[in-house]
């Protein structure tokens, strides 16, 4: 009687491992790009959320409301550089923040251009102090993984994908 052997041979196993290695070497770099794009988009979306909240609250309350960098989550005392979180707070003495965002991960970079400092919306939803731009990216940024958030004088907010510096 003959027995039929079952299972796989060593050569079949080595070929399968070689094919798997080739597929992973192609897929892993692409996956890293997806992760980097996702992180950049999430950071930009968080900032846009804060800006939209400040603008809508300024109109609703009929008073100035600002978005500012904050290290203590209560007052405007940080810099738009990625090391501070940010808060939305009415622009009056003794106000408490309406919402607080913690500092992003250590590899985040945020740069403000144009009118620097606090971003203040007035009762009409317009930007006080002139147009400004916040650029966001993460360390190791490649291609078009950076984001640019433009706020014009009328208060309109526009986020777009831009090339890394």
UniProtKB/TrEMBL annotation:
Gene3D superfamilies: minor pseudopilin epsh domain. It comes from Nitrincola iocasae. GO terms for cellular component: plasma membrane; type II protein secretion system complex. The chain crosses the membrane at residues 7-28. Its main location: membrane. It is a single-pass membrane protein. It is found in: Cell inner membrane. Keywords: Cell inner membrane, Cell membrane, Membrane, Methylation, Transmembrane, Transmembrane helix. This is Type II secretion system protein H.
């Amino acid at each position: 009687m003959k027995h039929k052997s079952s299972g796989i041979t060593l050569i079949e196993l080595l070929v399968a491992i070689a094919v798997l290695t080739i597929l992973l070497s192609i897929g892993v770099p692409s996956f890293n790009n997806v992760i980097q794009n996702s992180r950049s988009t999430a950071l930009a979306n968080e900032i846009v959320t804060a800006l939209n909240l400040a603008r809508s609250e300024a109109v609703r309350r009929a008073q100035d409301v600002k978005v500012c960098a904050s290290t203590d989550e209560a007052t405007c005392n940080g810099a738009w550089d990625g090391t501070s979180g940010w808060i939305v707070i009415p622009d009056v003495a003794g106000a408490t923040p309406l919402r607080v965002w913690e500092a992003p991960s250590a590899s985040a970079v945020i740069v403000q251009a144009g009118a620097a400092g606090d971003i203040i919306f007035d009762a009409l939803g317009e930007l006080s102090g002139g147009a400004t731009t916040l650029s966001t990216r993460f360390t190791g940024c490649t291609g078009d993984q950076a984001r640019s958030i433009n706020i014009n004088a009328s208060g309109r907010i526009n986020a777009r994908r831009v090339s890394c510096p």
